[in-house]
UniProtKB/TrEMBL annotation:
The keyword DNA damage does not apply. InterPro entries: MamF_MmsF (IPR019109). Residues 1-17 have a biased composition (Basic and acidic residues). Its main location: membrane. It is a multi-pass membrane protein. This is DUF4870 domain-containing protein.
Amino acid sequence: MSTHPEPDDQQIGRDDLTQPVDDPTVPPAPAPEQQEAEEQREASAPPPQQQANYAPPPRAEYSPPTGPPGPPPGYTAQRVPAYSADSTLTNVQLNYWLTAIFGWPAVIFWAIDKDKTPLLDDHLKEVLNFGIVRVIAGVIWAIPVVGWILGAIASIATLIIGIMGALNGPDAYKAGQQYRYPWNFRFIS
């Protein structure tokens, strides 16, 4: 048994390679008579019309927009404090909602806003404690079978309690009152 392929009956020789092959993708060359007729047509055709010299219109000078030069007389801009009660309320609302859904963002809000005011600090600690409870409920899921059932119940319960806190906690903060989650453990006081 030979590893070389058997020669075909039709072998290609060197002379066969030099002969032209009809390729259907290449258009045939025009006959010499057609080339001469084409050249005569091009020579007798009138030259293409050249466009007149076109110059763009002159540029207009830039003029600034017209309008009042500034604020009306007697107007002074009001300065907005960098840390206002509205931004604090917004942060408290965001803290309550993110902790109700995820559990862990309370740590970030507590680290940023702690020790600013006693009321804010109280709300931040309450939400942080609830966030720790949410994380513990999520860790219970890691226990096979029993943890899946208890983890599901605990996660649903803490989600409902978290939504209740997100709805009521910012209102209590706005009213200057403390808010306490039901069934919350106070790890940080």
